[in-house]
Amino acid sequence: MKLSIDNTALAEDFFSDTRILGIVAPVKDYRFCWMLNQAMGCDFRRNSDIEIQLSKKGRQYFFSVYEYREDMSFLEHYIYSNQFDGEYLLPEFRHLDFFWLLKGDEVDEDYIASLQKSIKEINGIQLITELDKDKIKNKIHLVF
Length: 144
Known about the structure:
Elements: H1 7-14, E1 18-24, H2 29-40, E2 45-46, E3 52-56, E4 59-63, E5 65-69, E6 76-81, E7 83-84, E8 87-88, E9 98-103, H3 109-120, E10 127-131
Antiparallel strand pairs: 1-9, 1-10, 2-5, 3-4, 5-6, 6-9, 7-8
């Protein structure tokens, strides 16, 4: 008997309470998170325990994930780098540099609008858009 993991159910559970923003900012991941920390008072830090590792064409690719948890809230923020050594975490969104995943608490429209406005005001941010979770083909790549 062969056992297999049901990735669909896993992804659905992981994304049940999330919102995802796609960001174009042509800077290194550590610089991007530093910019967010400085401008918005966040405390994004790289978490190597949840780094995403993909195997493609016999090679290993490592996509960094930065984490920030709000005080007095269950809300967690994750920044994913979309590119590593010419490969993309989500190839269907290759024009985006980063993904900002909000998870763990209810996030309403006002919060998202305010967050997008704050991010847009940061020098070097070219685009920010909310992504429809249902339109992400490779969403299992974001699960840690």
